[in-house]
Amino acid sequence: MRTTSRRLETLSLLQAHPGISATQLAARLGVTERTARRDVAQLREVGYRIDAEPGRTGGYRLAGGATMPPLLLDADEVAAVAVGLRTAVAVAGLETAAVTALAKLTQVVPARWQSRLAALGDVQAPAAPHRLADRDVLVPLALACRAEEAVRVRHVGRSVDVQPLRLVTLRRRWYLVACPRGGDWLVYALDRVEHVQPLGTRFPTPSPPVDAAAFVADTLAHGPWRHRVRVLVHTSADLVRELVDPTVAEVVEAGDECELHFGTDDLDWAARWLACLGVDLDVLEPAPLVDRMRALGRWLLDRY
User: What CATH topology corresponds to 3-63?
Assistant: First the structure.
């Protein structure tokens, strides 16, 4: 094995097997322990911080350094990074960096991976949302969630201290699941958060939601709307679940049929949305929605 290739293989082994010993490195590379140690020393010289633990149970570990050295990624890892970069357009301030990073990644990957990246571009690239999460909001909140540290956020012009739980993306928008001091778990839209201040502490909360993403979806579907809508749909719940975004409405089984539960401030929108589902249904509540659907039907008949 050529020296350069062997050192790249050494780096790959260090990344994949933290704590690997010189003896194990030598055996995997087919060289002497002296050569393996010399390769580690050369990697240190070009910028990799490699810590060594002495003793029979000791070994080498890659650690963070002052600069960002090159990384060795396999095909699946490259694909994962590419997908992540494509979703970064939903973070204000990172759009250009995401595009240039993806361009660099595409330029240096082996030719046999190019078609894979191109296919991911066709399938995974989302359209940018109308409102983006700010980089200076997203990053400190992500760190606070990881450290379980309380933060003060300015949300829609009002400051509130919260204990963050998880960041969630739904329908290409970012949300924070957090508990205000002395309150219960709530959902905050990150595009409405203007500032984040770590508090360096944490405070007690009720038991958190088991599934943060499901909690966000349920909150969006049953938020503080003026109208609560219940609709009986004369078909199976499985079929309706294929038609309905869980952040818009909840599907509740009712024998061979099902009900749709959701909230809205606009009954005219609700009438149009239900008509677009193309299923047989009856409005259970509110009664004014029946009048809106009849009006929509009359307008369609008169127009077409």
Answer: Arc Repressor Mutant, subunit A (1.10.10)
Q: Among the listed ranges 8-17, 50-59, 86-95, 238-247, which one has the minimum average pLDDT value?
A: 86-95
Q: Which tokens go with 73? A: 């990624």
> pTM of this prediction?
0.54
For the domain made up of 133-221, give the CATH fold: SH3 type barrels. (2.30.30)
> What is the per-residue pLDDT across 188-236, written as a single tens digit (0 to 9) for each?
988 889 899 999 888 999 999 999 988 988 888 777 778 889 999 999 9
Q: Which fold has domain 227-303?
A: Alpha-Beta Plaits (3.30.70)
Confidence label for 57 from pLDDT (cuts 50, 70 and 90): low
Greater model confidence, 125 or 49? 49
What is the location of CATH 1.10.10.10 in the chain?
Answer: 3-63
227 with 267: CB under 8 angstroms? Answer: yes
What's the number of CA atoms in the CB half-sphere (13 Å) around residue 230?
7
Half-sphere exposure of 137 (CA within 13 A, CB side): 22
Note whether 227 and 264 are within 8 A (CB).
yes
